[in-house]
Each structure stands twice: as C-alpha cells, then as structure tokens.
Design brief:
This protein is an alpha/beta fold. It is built from five helices and four strands; from the N terminus they run E-H-E-H-E-H-E-H-H. Helix 1 crosses helix 5.
Length: 105
Amino acid sequence: MEKKVILLACTTGVSATFFLKYMQQAAQIKQMQLELVTCGILELETYLAMRKIDILLLAPHARPTKNYSYQKIANLSVDLDIIKMTDYGLMDGERVLTQIEDLLV
C-alpha cells in the first residue's frame, strides 16, 4: 500500500511542526503508513505545486483560511478537514490519526 501524504497547515507552520511530532509517534505505534508534513498557510499553493498530497488538515486557529484552502485544492483529489481544538490543544496525535482514518475510508 502506498503511503498517504497528510499535510498539516497552520498560519505560520510553527505549531503544526510541533504537533507533527505527536502524530508521528502515534502513527508509529499504530503502524500506519503515512507521510506527515507541515507548512504555513501562505506556503500552501507553492507546496501543492511541488508534490501530491492526500489530505490537508488545518490547525484549528487556521479555520478562517478554510475557503482559501478549498480554492487551492479545488482541482485536486484532496480531502480537507480541520483538527478539533481540543485534540490540537491537548496534542492528541492519536485522536487526529482517527480523524485521518475516517477520511481515508
């Protein structure tokens, strides 16, 4: 099975990079074949031009950029979702992996 590429985007990329560590740990425990990457929302268009992703997850504080993000992935086969504030605030990588699993079904 090909690794699914999950892009976490937040306003600058800093908190998503920090949160990514928790997701990687949870993915390793669950033995999920994921490539987890991050970027700031202003880098989204450039990032999408460089590589294919399967899911775009927005940090809760990037919610105001949801319409902008939809426009950037409109012609791509990419799912978009927003991480729940409680999961992000608690750095609950396992809960977010469950969210990803639901999107991959």
